[in-house]
Amino acid sequence: MTLAIAILNWNGKSWLEQFLPSVIQYSPEAEIYVIDNASSDDSVLFLESAFSSVKIIRNKTNSGFAAGYNEGLKAIKADIYCLLNSDVEVTENWLSPIFGLFSDNQDIAAIQPKILDYNNKHQFEFAGAGGGLMDNLGYPYCRGRVFDDVETDRGQYNDKTEIFWASGCSLFIRSEDFWKMNGFDERFFAHQEEIDLCWRLKNEGRKIFYTGQSTVYHVGGGTLNKQNPRKTFLNFRNNLTMLVKNLPASDLIPVIFSRLVLDGFGGLYLGYKNGWPHLWAVLKAHFAFYAQIPESLRLRQKNQIKFYYQSKWLIFKHFLGTKNN
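and the corresponding structure tokens:
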């Protein structure tokens, strides 16, 4: 079983300088690639001079996370891809549990390790935490993180278990499964494209897993921090588009209608909390979502599995201060 670690880079020389040494040190089983998304800094020159063992793939444009990986991975031959953010520190023996899970179960298409906060290493990190789940209204959340609230790591998620989605921050996926799904939906640009991919894989009967025996530390927001209205736009638009693509027909209209209403309240809340550009970002996201509906409907798979959610009415329970389950 061959493994290629692919790090997508855009003007991230400082992240590569800080975190690439740990990837090289603790990943002797893997070929390591940096896919450069037409950086305007000297990332490529730095890699060529400082890390001669790392293979460099140069994309012609900065087409975002989704298209950037789709293009770059075409040049990589391996049984397993690890899509790893440039602001991630890996740990000793982080790959062994991953290899073990893939070897033991051929039905597993993708795996995520435990993701902790680099700046607070006893706390889970927003982007993935202890494995991704979904509620009945299509809100993604994680074991160890619900909306902006994160848990301290006390070993409560040291298990191996099936999850709904694996984080793109550190995503291991069989190359065969990735290309069978035609990779990421490039319309997403960035954010939630990995959830869409995992959902499509589940519609094909494939499994997504988490293992707490493998740990990485993620800085988060290295390219686009959550105070940026562009991030708000992408999250709102992409989540709705993902629901249209993947929800069973019986759930499609009620869930989308509920979400459009709730997004209105969400936009007002974000406008009050983070500034009115975030409210405008939500409004723009809705219009962009409407424009994508015809293509999203065309891309629906023949088989949409029953919508398996792990929590109901999560947004109400969370903001009213009740339990999440």
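(Above: one complete record from the training split.) Residues 15 and 87 are 5 Å apart (CA to CA).
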